Amino acid sequence: MDYEGMIIRPPSEANSILLQITLGCSHNKCTFCGTFRQKRFNIKPDDLIFKDIEYARTHFTRQRRLFLCDGDALVIPQKRLVKILKQIRERLPWVERVGLYANTKSIGLKTDEQLLELRDLGVKIAYMGLESGDDTVLKAIRKGADSQKMITMGQRVRAAGIKLSITVLLGLGGKTRSREHALETGRVLSAIDPEYVGALSLMLVPGSELYDAHEKGEFEVISAEEMLEELGVMISATRLTNGLFHANHASNYLPIRAKMPEDKEKTLELISQALKGNIALKPEHMRAL
To answer: How would you classify residue 37: left for phi > 0, otherwise alpha for psi between -120 and 50, otherwise beta?
Structure first.
């Protein structure tokens, strides 16, 4: 397979075929992220993509899922993306689900009819980084969208019948916006009502603007206990009709996997017990991105 640079994929795509069709991220401005700073966004040539599909046809016959890398595959023009998906369907007929990252920009470039077309061609799940529902935080991290746009685009993906997995980032509001960040994120998650929510805990990445702001004393990272308190407020404010709320990423201090709404109160009690010291938190040295 032709891979360039670091390949990022969601934890749930660990056993998927990883097909890199773009390089980097078309936005690439978020202050907390240093993942794609060394990559200039580009769409890979079709001949390379189709060559990788042929390689997968021979070597990856057991995988039933495929993930389109890098950070922003949905931004590819519809005609070209459809061509790639049709090639996947033709050459890898055993693949049952195609996943990709999506942001408000790339979703906004697709009509409702085009989203339906992608679903019919195998795109069954999209991963969207909400990070925060607080407009003040979204502006500060240069996310490129406000909370209403997040809601609108998330709802459009769901209306197309594509499952939605949303990522939020604990601690992103720092000490000054922690509660607002938690409450507003719960509000936005409730409005979108995704199938999956993944909560990660902030880890500052050297070279990112947020890391530099912390070094200058302009951004204060909250403690492990404060992140747990923030998570509790967020979960309390989140109303999902039938979703999974995960906080079991390697960056998290307390692993959580809750089916909502039935596990909500049990999860809040778990967080409460951890804050009382009755449940041990993950040591700092064991956390990772």
So the answer is: alpha
Q: 280 CB contacts (<8 Å, ≥6 apart)?
A: none
What does the pLDDT read at residue 283? 84
Dmax over Cα atoms in the chain, in whole Å?
Answer: 57
Q: Which stretches of 112-180 are assigned E, i.e. beta strand? A: 123-131, 163-170
Complete edge-to-edge strand list for the sheet that includes strand 65-69: 17-20, 65-69, 97-102, 123-131, 163-170, 196-201, 243-246, 257-260
Say how far apart CA 164 and CA 74 lie, in whole Å. 13
Q: Residues near 45 by Cβ (< 8 Å), separated by ≥ 6?
A: none
pTM of the model: 0.94
**CA atoms of 38 and 28, how far apart (whole Å):** 10
Domain regions of the chain by residue span: 11-278
pLDDT digits (tens, 9 = 90+) for 221-263: 999 999 999 999 999 999 999 999 998 888 888 999 999 999 9
pLDDT, position 94: 98
Helix 78-91 and helix 112-120: axis angle, to 10°? 10
Give the per-residue pLDDT at 5.
Answer: 83
| Residue 182, pLDDT score | 98
State the Cα–Cα distance between residues 240 and 187, nearest whole angstrom: 10
Pick the CATH number of 11-278 from 3.90.1580.10, 3.20.20.70, 3.10.450.50, 3.40.50.1240: 3.20.20.70
Residue numbers in the chain where pLDDT is lower than 50: none
Name 127's bridge partners.
101, 165
